[in-house]
Amino acid sequence: MKLVRLVVLTAAVAASQVSPAMAESLLQSGARLAQQAGRQLPPPARPDVRRAATAAQEPAAERGMSRRRKLFFALAGAIGFAAGVYAIDHGVEDNTPSSKGTRKD
Amino acid sequence: MFGGVVAAACAALLTTPVAWAQQNGGIAGVVRDTGGLSMPGVTVEAASPALIEKVRSVTTDGEGRYNIVDLRPGTYVVTFSLPGFSTVKREGIELTAGFTAPLNVNLTVGAITETITVTGASPVVDTQSIRQQEVLGQKMLEALPSGSIGLQTLAYVTPGFASTQADVGGSRDTWSAQGAYTFFHGKTGTRASFDGFRNQYFIGAGNGVGYISDQGTIQELQLETSGMGAESGSGSASLNAIPKSGGNIFAGGIDGFFSGKGMQSSNIDDSFRDFGINSSAEVQRIYRLGAQLGGPILKDKIWFFAAVARWGSRVNQPGAYYNALQGKSGIPSVPTIAYAPDLDRPAASFDWYRNHSLRATWQATEKHKFAVFGDIQKSCRCTTGPFTGANAIESERGWDWWPSGVVQGTWQAPLTNKLLVEAGASWQVANWVNFAQEGVSRDDRSILETSTNFRYGATTVLTAPIARTGRSAQRVTASYVTGSHNFKAGVTLEQAFNDESRTRNNETDGLNYDFLNGRPLRLQYQAEPFLQQERQNAELGIFLQDAWTIRRVTLNLGVRMDYVSMGFPAAKLDAGLFVPAREVQELKGVPEWTDINPRFGVAIDVFGNGRTAVKASVGRFNQLTRSDLTRRFHPFSSSVNTAFRNWNDVNGNYIPDCALADFTANGECGAISNQNFGKFIPSATIFDDSVTKDNRDFLWDINVEVEHQIRDGLSVNVGYNHNWDGSFTVTENTLLGPESFDEYCITVPNDPRLPNAGQQQCGYYDVKPSLFGQGQLRVTNAKEFGTPKRYWDGFWVGMNGRLPKNITVGGGLDIGRQVDDHCLTVDMPNQPNDITGNPLRGGSLAPAANAYNPFCRVVTDWADLMDVRLRASVPLPWSFNASFIYRNTPGAPQDATLAVTSATVRFKDPSRTTLTTAQTVNLYAPNSVFGDRFSQLDVAVSKSFDIGWGRLRAALDVYNALNSNSLQSVISAYSTRWLRPVGFLDARLARITASINF
User: Fold this and answer.
1) Looking at the 3D structure of chain A, how many domains does it have?
2) B614 in contact with A at a CB cutoff of 8 Å?
3) Which of A15, A105, B61, B628 has the highest count of CB atoms within 10 angstroms of its CB?
4) What domains are there in chain B, each with its CATH number?
5) Parent domain of A83
6) Reduced to 3 states, what is the DSSP secondary structure of residue B637?
7) In this structure, what are the phi and psi dihedrals at residue B695, rounded to the nearest 5 degrees?
8) Which phi and psi (to 5°) does residue B179 adopt?
9) Per residue in B118-166, pLDDT tens?
10) Does A88 contact B310 at a Cβ distance shorter than 8 Å?
11) For strand B512-516 and strand B447-449, is the pairing parallel, antiparallel, or unpaired?
12) Which residue has the higher pLDDT, B853 or B860?
């Protein structure tokens, strides 16, 4: 049953582009707020596979966005990633002799 | 912190690949006018963002042919121009690694400024190459559900490719998932490469992956299965990961996945509960966090690509618990003598990886390009095995990888539009020092309960304190390409080393114990201290090959000279408790082999339209080089380093009350099993020139294939493969012959599942007691005694391509039959051993090691080797995408071995009543009985969001969606635990994957 609930929840998250608090990720929220602030709301999503495929291949650097905003997102991403790496490195058990300083080779 | 600092500079994903010409693609064809006449002098340009030089250009020859080689994977626009004719532009040519796209065009009279743009499906049938391969590009790698993107992904989707343990969403440790494969079509070993450079440990059989790549660095995966040209040194299946590079724009991304508790089902049914297995593997966590960033340092001049990643897993194994009695025997010299599960402490397989890589590509001049790549990694395969719970967690050992990594560099120079020169070098090193598991003290010993084959107490051996291996490689090639000829000459050179010391966990005397029903049975000795060193001084390959196109026929002609020289350095070892001080001088040229290997193939474009090809190839290959080719000659190794003696613990104190260093029977201890144990006799094993200077093992591989494009973007193929091995090595005892053995019979247990149940079965042999432990070993070529055989016959039918609406499909059916015949007598009748002491056979379906076996011819039949793989990726409305991988493969072998003692055997010579030692025998031919077929379905559903400044992709992967509990391995030792599942498919698992690219 846990798996079923998980599938349903994930499907709901994936299918939704609206923003109920329970079905929007932090990243999506950030993206949406940034778009609103920049008054660059995207057009409503349409079931256009070709458009989606094209958008998927289009490099972000070629899209219209201010340099400051790009830098902001890059920096936010880098900080978030660094925090994640730090948490993993310090959260995962490390019993290796090299980390404990007990290697004799 | 280091990772964080690096990560702060990184955040994005670039997708332009780099690849060595060996894996690169090409475009070739004929240019004609509207009357069908060939057109010489037409300029043909291939342009793509994948090229830092932007465009590659050639001209057609006198027959109107052109051939552009060394094109990196990507989408190309090809332009044909000639004054007086309209320019033709062909768009959307998608190239994958190793694929030559056929592209014929007709030019019409007109102004050169007038451009005719042609669009259409990209060709899918390679009508020139004879190579059979599977390629997964970036889109498929992203779309398909893959527990660990890498070599494992290819092994999953390729019919006929065996893997040793299935993975469910990353539940298998990455190291073995990425490299521990057994065989393809019975061929020994698999070559794994990163950017064309071999990426495997120089240890033993050499099939462990040496550098564990971060999936965020991989642009494309390529698997060559057969039909390799002269530039390939081995006929084994060859896996290659082609890394990403930078581009002219900044782009990057962050990606990750996670699965944990509560995201998994259970797949235990009554058949498992009957064996006392009440739970399947339980994922505690499977995770990944990675970031990539690439872009131009100088536009069109210098690109960079950087990646950092962390990933790992912790999975509780079924029925596996820490030992509640660990260290609680009260006997200082044997702190652990029994095992009882501590149900409050489940035991888990556990691994983690930390990678940091950087690549730079420099277009130094118009004609010279350089690329360098480096990756430093620290990793922990904290429960080697991989740990499945078949033994106690305390009998596992961890691998501490640090420092490890790889550095590579390449130079490419299209000096003219016909001459291309390339060179490259790679250096890879891995330190993988072993460590004991939590709770194991240095007084603990590894104990094997022989009645159940269950090991506990401590690991059998630690590769420590020294465990390092490395490999370096260099290569230079020159290609001269005209419209009709693609001539290539090259030199490849590799060196490798391996240093590993071995110690038993117990540091006092290094003895391990065997028990029978909880009571001491045997003492297992090992010579300590021990250090093994091997050097591959040179593996040289010089090759010439030409792809010569005559009308619709392309002849692939090649010849390769392979030379290998190995040896070992000088070394000294101190005396130990049971062995004297030992010293060896440096020795080179053991072995030293030179082989000439011809390759021939033909590919026919049957109708001249690039849609139907008939291909055939035949080639001789040497087997992959590996350290055990020279390890066998090292006096430290060829000495008798292990032996055992019976132990009758009369007083029941679990202490062997005897003089341990006195190898004659005394006290509670019997005589040592090999009288040469404890001596340093460099000549204890002698090697004939037939194995040191001649007769390198080889493979002949024959393939016939028909490939047809049945519609735009979709091809089907059918084929036949026959391959066989040659040059087997056997070990004989110079003192022994068939007359030195007495035949005995056993009574097959009265179990209706066994053939001949309850009846006597003979054909087993034991050396005469007076000769036990006597004689000298001689290693020689098997042809002195007979002709062992290993061969494979097989057929396949497959499909591959892209359907309308970007639907991608692939897969097929592979069916084969393998024969292993070693019915020749080397000492013991019909039971020859190879150099490792295992029963001789060519393939990798190794029967139980050291099992006495009267079944010398093993036929693994068609039905048992049938293999089905299917995959598809389907774009759906609203930016959804669905994909799956399905595998239906042979079931687990269900062998049966029986531990026999003097009391349970009957010698044909009635005057003999006792075995020299307890033995294990096969009850029927190994690999002749298989369980239910293995089945696994993995599915993924993803959705992409355009978030303005980039693309967010979220996916739900469901691995083992059918919740199968297919068996992968079972206990073969006959007892109440016989056929008890050891490895079985983990239960259905959900995993969340997300990435942001911008």
Assistant:
1) 2
2) no
3) B61
4) 133-244 (2.170.130.10), 697-863+895-928 (no CATH)
5) 66-92
6) helix
7) 65, 50
8) -150, -15
9) 777 778 899 888 888 888 888 889 999 987 887 778 888 889 887 667 8
10) yes
11) parallel
12) B860
Burial of B159 (0-12, 13-18, 19+ CB in 10 A): buried
Cβ contacts (< 8 Å) between A86 and chain B: which residues? 1, 3-4
Q: Residue B824: what pLDDT?
A: 82
Task: Give the position of tokens 């964080």.
Answer: B4
Strand ranges for B822-890 from DSSP E:
857-860, 867-876, 880-889
Token pair for residue B931?
């369980």
- Rounded CA gap, B693 and B593, in Å? 6
CB B174 within 8 A of CB B146: no
For B358, other C-beta atoms within 10 Å of its C-beta total 18
Tokens representing residue B50 in the block: 């994948």
Task: Report the DSSP beta bridge partners of residue B494.
Answer: B473, B539
Q: How confident is the model at residue B293 (pLDDT cuts 50, 70, 90)?
A: very high
Strand runs (DSSP E) across B74-145, as ranges? 74-81, 87-95, 100-102, 105-107, 115-118, 132-136
CA distance A42 to chain B (A): 7
| Rounded Cα–Cα distance for residues B904 and B974 (Å) | 14
For chain B, the maximum distance between any two Cα atoms, rounded to a whole number of angstroms, is: 104
Q: Do A65 and B250 touch (CB under 8 A)?
A: no
Q: Is the pLDDT of residue A48 over 60?
A: no
Q: What stretches of B10-160 adopt beta strand conformation (E)?
A: 16-17, 25-33, 43-47, 55-59, 65-71, 74-81, 87-95, 100-102, 105-107, 115-118, 132-136
Contact A98 B433 (CB under 8 A): yes
Contact B525, B642 (CB under 8 A): yes
Q: Is A51 contained in some domain?
A: no
Contact state of B256 with A84 under an 8 Å Cβ cutoff: yes
Q: Which of A88, A90, A94, A102 is the mutation pick for testing B, counting most B CBs within 10 A?
A: A88
Query: Measuring CA to CA, which residue among B731, B863, B789, B627 is closest to residue B186?
Result: B789
Residue B904 clears pLDDT 60, i.e. is over it: yes
Confirm or reject contact between B119 and chain A (CB < 8 A).
Answer: no
pLDDT > 90: percent of chain B: 53
N-term to C-term CA, chain A: 50
Flag whether A52 is in a domain: no
**Tokens encoding B467:** 């465990």
Write the DSSP string, B450-478: TTTTEEESS-S-EEEEEEEEEEEEEEEEE
Phi/psi region, residue B175 (left: phi>0; alpha: psi -120 to 50; beta: rest), is alpha
Query: What SS3 state is found at A86?
Result: helix
Q: How confident is the model at residue B758 (pLDDT cuts 50, 70, 90)?
A: very high
* Closest among B193, B281, B280, B186 to B243, alpha carbons compared: B193
pLDDT at B842: 34
pLDDT band at B36 (very low <50, low <70, confident <90, very high): confident
Task: Calculate the alpha carbon distances from B785 to B694, B764, B771, B837 in Å.
Answer: 17, 20, 21, 17
pTM for the predicted model, two decimal places: 0.85
**Is A43 a domain residue?**
no
Residues B311 and B5: their CA atoms lie apart, in Å, by 18
- A63 with B308: Cβ contact below 8 A: no
**B354 close to A (CB below 8 A):** yes
Q: What are the chain B neighbours of A36 within 8 Å (beta carbons)?
A: none
Instruction: Identify the pLDDT of residue A42.
Output: 39
Estimate to the nearest angstrom the gap between the alpha carbon of B467 and the chain centroid: 20
Instruction: Say if CB B354 and CB B310 are below 8 A apart.
Output: yes
Return mean pLDDT, chain B: 88
Q: Are the C-beta atoms of B497 and B534 separated by less than 8 Å?
A: yes
Task: Give me the amino acid identity at B29.
Answer: G
Q: Which letter, b or e, does each residue of A15-37 get, where b requires 16 or more Cβ atoms within 10 Å of its Cβ?
A: eebeeeeebbeebbebbbebbee
Q: What is the pLDDT of residues B552-609, one digit of tens each?
A: 999 999 999 999 999 999 999 999 999 999 999 999 999 999 999 999 999 999 998 8
Question: What is the reported pLDDT for B926?
Answer: 81
Is A105 contained in some domain? no
Give the single-character DSSP code of B822. Answer: -
